[in-house]
Amino acid sequence: MLSTAMAPALLTPDQLEAAKRARACKVAMAASFSVGFVELVMGYFLGMASLGAEGVHTILDGVDSVIVLIAVYLAARPADRSHPFGHGKFETLGAAVEGSFIVAAAIGIAYEAVLRFIHGQMPERIPLYTVAVMGGAAVFYLMVSAYLMKLARETKSPAVLAEALHLRTHIYITGGVAGGLLVGSLGHYPIVDTLLAMAIAVCLIVIAWHVFKEVFSQFTDASLPADEIAELAELVGGFENQFIEVHGLRTRRSGAERHIEMHLVMLPETSVATAHALSHRIEDAVMAKWPTTRITIHIEPVNTAAAEHEGWLKGQPKVRTADETPTAREFIH
C-alpha cells in the first residue's frame, strides 16, 4: 500500500500566483544587493558620486524588495472576518512604500550632488574600467528585468510591476552612467560624474511617478483597464444565448486580485438551479483567464409584466460595459 504522507500538496491558483510574486521579489533582492554592493565599494574608494548614488539607489531597491516580499505574503492570505474582501491591498501598500523609498533616495542623491557641485568636489580622474563594470551591470539588469516583466504580466501584481519597472530603469541608468563615464574618462571631464548623479535623481522621480500612479488607481478603486473590460465582455458573451442581459458591472483591482460584480438577468420562469449553474459556468470561464479573480454574480428576473419590456432589450448589447453608472439598467428588473 502506497503512503501519501510525503506527497507534495497541490497548490491552489491563488497560491501559485503568490509563489510567482514572491519569487520575483527574491530575484530582485538578489540582483539589487549584489550589484549595489559592488557600486558602493567602487564609489567609496574612487570618490565617485555617480557610482555612490547608483549604489545607494540599488541597495535601497533591495530593501524595497524585502518590504514588498512581506507585503506579498500578507496579501496572499485568504479572506477572513477582519478582511472579508481579502488582503490584496497590502500588496498595493507595499508598492506605495517602495515608491516612497524611491523618492527619498532621489532627494538624498540630488542634495549630495548639488553640494559636491557647489564645493567643487569631483574625482581626480575617472578610471576606464568603471565603464566596463557599469556596462556589465546594464546587461545584467536587462536579463533580470525581462524575467520580472514576464512575471508581472502573468500575475498582474502592482508590486511585481513596480519591481520590474524599477529594475528596467537600471538598464538606462547604468547604461547612461557607463556612457557618461566613458566621455568623462576619455575627455578628462570629472564634472561628468556629478552631472550623472543629478540625472539619476531625476530618473528616480520619474520611476516614483509611475509607481504611485498604479497605487493611486488601486486605492481609489478605479475600474479595470478598458482592454480587460473588453476581454471580460467577450468571455461572458460566450454564454449570451443562455441569459437576457448582463449589466451592473463593477470592477476593481486589489493587489494582484481582480474583483468583479455583475447582474445576470434571466427570464422569470428560469429555475434557481439553472441560473445558479450558469453563474458558475461564467465564473469558471473568467477564472480560467484570470485565476486570482473574485466574482459576485447577482441573478435578477427581467420584468416581463411591464408592457414595454421588449423595447428595453431591442437593439441593446447583451453584455453592457458602457453604462454611465452600474445602476443605469435597474429598471428592467
Description:
- With 333 residues, the protein is mostly helical.
- 64% of the residues lie in helices and 9% in strands.
- It has helices at 13-46, 49-75, 89-118, 129-155, 158-187, 191-219, 226-237, 272-289, 309-313, and strands at residues 245-254, 257-266, 293-301.
- A three-stranded mixed sheet has the order 1-2-3.
- The protein is elongated and about 85 Å long.
- It starts with 12 loop residues before the first helix and ends in a 20-residue tail after the last helix.
The overall strand count is 3
Q: What is the gyration radius calculated from CA atoms?
A: 26 Å
Give the strand order of the largest sheet, numbering strands 1, 2, ... along the chain: 1-2-3
Poorly predicted tracts of residues: 1-9
Largest sheet: 3 strands, mixed
Write the layout of secondary structure elements.
Layout: H1 13-46, H2 49-75, H3 89-118, H4 129-155, H5 158-187, H6 191-219, H7 226-237, E1 245-254, E2 257-266, H8 272-289, E3 293-301, H9 309-313
Parallel strand pairs: 2-3
Antiparallel strand pairs: 1-2
Helix pairs in contact: 1-2, 1-4, 1-5, 2-3, 2-5, 2-6, 3-5, 3-6, 4-5, 5-6
List keywords for this structure.
64% helix, mainly alpha, Alpha-Beta Plaits, Alpha-lytic protease prodomain-like, 9 helices, 3-stranded mixed β-sheet
A few lines on this structure:
64% of the residues lie in helices and 9% in strands. It is elongated, with a radius of gyration of 26 Å. With 333 residues, the protein is mostly helical.
